[in-house]
Amino acid sequence: MTIAILGAGAFGTALAVALSANGPVGLWGRQASWRRENPRLPGITMPDNIDVTDNLTSVLTADTILLALPAQILRGFLADHGARLNGKTLVSTAKGIDISTLTGPSALIAEACPESCIAVLTGPSFAADIARGLPTALTLACASGIEGPRLQHALSTPVLRLYLTSDIAGAELGGALKNVIAIAAGIVIGAGLGDSARAAIITRGFAEMTRLAGRLGARPETLTGLSGLGDLTLTCTSPQSRNFRFGLSLGAGQPFDRATTVEGAATAGAVAALATRIGEDMPIAAMVARLAEGAVSVEKAVENLMTRPLKEE
Ligand SMILES: NC(=O)c1ccc[n+]([C@@H]2O[C@H](COP(=O)([O-])OP(=O)(O)OC[C@H]3O[C@@H](n4cnc5c(N)ncnc54)[C@H](O)[C@@H]3O)[C@@H](O)[C@H]2O)c1
Ligand SMILES: O=P(O)(O)OC[C@H](O)CO
Fold first, then answer.
1. Which of 144, 166, 188 lies at the terminal end of a domain, its last residue?
2. Domain Glycerol-3-phosphate dehydrogenase NAD-dependent N-terminal: where (predicted)?
3. In 119-150, which positions are buried (b, 16+ CB within 10 angstroms) versus exposed (e)?
4. Pocket around ligand 1 at a 6 A CB cut-off
5. Could you tell me if 19 and 160 lie in one domain?
6. I want to staple 138 with a disulfide (CB 3.0 to 4.6 A). Which of 53, 76, 123, 289 is the partner?
7. Are residue 34 and residue 116 in the same domain, yes or no?
8. Which residues line ligand 2 (CB under 6 A)?
9. 262 labelled binding-site residue
């Protein structure tokens, strides 16, 4: 198996560093003018067997491509380059739902590359941790009983342990939805509402995640696994998370650098629209969408959530 990664942001670069333990890796970035140290991942030196390039053609000789682009970028990228990727094994790593189609990355890839085998790599993992070689466990979702195990072995290393599932919908939705709830958790802490309120938002947020994912065909055990509960726990509790930090700044009423990749912001809008379309109640996600747009104050959002009709758990 020959491997290339498209997207030389923090995560694509970290994956390249990890997978270089198994052999050569191509890493493409549209503006990859650096070669040995990515400014998005300071302090990490690229091993010699990573070919960092801004020439897409040169990395497309690989048979297996990991797509490490943000979810809202993917559709446009596939429109431009999907034909050249079609037929290759494609592994999606984006954690979001496309705001214009309300579909996840795997559906976008399937539409653009109908002859490709598609997998999803997701789970609790900060790029900096992976790049430093800290032990990490992820979920690899692939519907193919042949390609799935092959990928699982090729993408695992002594410090990167992949668990295999065939539940693409569950793995993908867990990764996308946890980002929305992480923003909510950040808001709670940023606004000084306390750890008890955060535990409540995580738990009720997880209930929303499992409800929506279940309606969209996910298996419950996937949501309680690494890609759901595992990643939710990480992202709602660590200031390393950009989604959590975005929430912190919203809650505290402080500015936030909008150039930072915060997948949960657009995904909250997509989730709210999706929930409305299928008639599912997602009050926390809907409130995060409004807060991220600046359409409601934190005080009003808390009041609205706390005064909803009382119900059974
Ligand atoms: N950073 C992490 O810790 C981490 C961990 C797991 C998963 N992820 C997921 O990986 C995905 C990418 O996140 P990241 O952390 O690498 O983001 P990032 O902001 O570090 O990098 C995004 C990259 O996308 C590139 N890009 C933007 N628009 C583009 C376009 N039109 N064409 C080509 N390239 C374009 C940018 O140049 C940049 O290199 C996200 O879905 C994120 O949720 C990130
Ligand atoms: O920095 P975040 O919030 O995008 O989170 C990164 C990863 O998704 C954590 O698993």
1. 166
2. 3-143
3. bbbbbbbbbbbbbbeeebbbbbbbeeeebbeb
4. 7-12, 29-31, 40, 68-71, 73, 76-77, 93-96, 125-127, 261, 263
5. yes
6. 123
7. yes
8. 95, 124-126, 179, 182, 231, 234-235, 241-243, 263
9. yes
* Single pTM value for the model: 0.98
Q: Is 23 left (phi over 0), alpha (psi -120 to 50) or beta?
A: left
What is the CB neighbour count within 10 angstroms for residue 27? Answer: 27
Asked if the structure places residue 258 within a domain, the reply is yes
Shared domain for 159 and 99, answered yes or no, is: yes
Distance separating alpha carbons of residues 16 and 296, to the nearest angstrom = 41
* Ligand 1 center from residue 71 Cα (angstroms): 8
Q: Does residue 32 carry a pLDDT above 90?
A: no
Q: Read off the CATH number of the domain in which 35 is found.
A: 3.40.50.720
Q: Which residues lie below 8 Å from residue 274, measured CB to CB, with a gap of 6+? A: 97, 102, 212, 280
Of the bound ligands, which one is closest to the alpha carbon of residue 267?
A: 1
Q: How many domains are contained in the chain?
A: 2
In this structure, the answer to whether residues 52 and 162 fall within a common structural domain is yes
Residue 94's SS3 state is coil
Positive or negative, the CA dihedral 218, 224, 225, 230 is: positive
Q: Is 178 in the active site?
A: yes
- From the list 8, 5, 38, the residue with the least C-alpha distance to 19 is 5
Question: What pairs with residue 162 in β-bridges?
Answer: 138
Strands across the sheet containing 136-142: 50-53, 25-28, 3-6, 64-67, 89-92, 118-122, 136-142, 160-165
What pLDDT band is residue 31 in, cutting at 50, 70 and 90? confident
Tens of pLDDT, residue by residue over 188-203, are 999 999 999 999 999 9
**302 is annotated as contributing to ligand binding:** no
With tokens 């109908």, the residue in question is: 114
Ligand sitting nearest the alpha carbon of 105: 1
Is 8 annotated to bind a ligand? Reply is: yes
For this complex, say whether ipTM is above 0.90: yes
Amino acid occupying residue 76: G
